[in-house]
Amino acid sequence: MSEDLITVTRPSLPDLEKLQPLLEEIWKSGRLTNGGRFHEELEARLCDYLGVEYLSLFTNGTIALVTALQAMGVTGEVITTPYTFAATPHALLWNKLKPVFVDIEPDGFNMDASKIEAAITPETTAILPVHCYGTPANVSEIQRIADLHGLHVIYDAAHAFAVRHKHSSLLDAGDISVLSFHATKVFNTFEGGALILKDKETKQRVDYLKNFGFANETTVVAPGINGKMNEFQAALGLLQLDKIDEDILARRRVYRKYQAALAGIAGLKLMDEPLDTQWNYSYCPVLVQDEFPVSRDELYDDFRERRILVRRYFYPLVSDFPMYFDSSAFYKCASSVAERILCLPIYSDLSEQDFARIIECLNDVVDKSTGRYRGKE
């Protein structure tokens, strides 16, 4: 019998006994969506937990990003990163905006702020950075540049739930921050997302936009979309929020076990925990370096053969997708990272047995290269 499948991450599931009475209440109320009780409660509790003043829930993070760009009235060109998930530039195209890519930092995974000004043109109206793996982008420098040139800043903070940087919420940066509550995220509602907003007026506009533009039953004030979070998703979120601190602590324990286990394996560089940051351990990114005995893709294949579904987040670069490709552009740092990155499995209930399987795979690859292969027959 084959061993169980290990995924790169998986949702922390709610207690079904606690979920059942919430579902019964939803059903009895007859209100399954459109700002029901659980939706309103989750918005309020998330504001309190995250330390933000205004938050609007969405059915998923991509629709939230599309709506954020609409709410800010972004036009023309938007500066962003090639090292991100496809949803980041796709949201720009859906708004008929042109992504302008700049490289990432030589020693990190986020947009290199020193390259932003060279990419600004008369058509530029916004910057769309990403807090990749929940590590803080250079928010102070990005804001300085934005203020100097009169640009909006919208953060793709899909990975950055609950992250605090220099004693304040990372979600306070910029004009709007976009969260994802997809099933693979630290905090999830299976599908879902949210916008973090700075003022009551923007919150009201966003709430109109995510509900077809309706201000009331007969008045439509904007060409909106259907981006509302339903009551079932909100109920899941309330249960997840009850144990989110416990889940993050469990992920931290797993990450630090990786730190200890990988310290003795030459050629594998685990990302350092970000400085001055209360991190959420959303991913476990490792760079496979030249001194490792096999390539990143060979290691990836070896894991897959053992039913361990590691991921190459983010490969290929979004700038290599046909709709964005420019043969004259090359992003040296992003390309180097994309060719070497491998995200190892991390989630709150990763078992000791499964963790041992992951490390055994790494050790077997090393031993095989030196003639001491300990793999299974």
From TrEMBL:
InterPro entries listed in its UniProt record: DegT/StrS_aminotransferase
Molecular-function GO terms, alphabetical: transaminase activity
Keywords per UniProt: Aminotransferase, Pyridoxal phosphate, Transferase
Entry similarity comment: Belongs to the DegT/DnrJ/EryC1 family.
Name of protein: DegT/DnrJ/EryC1/StrS family aminotransferase
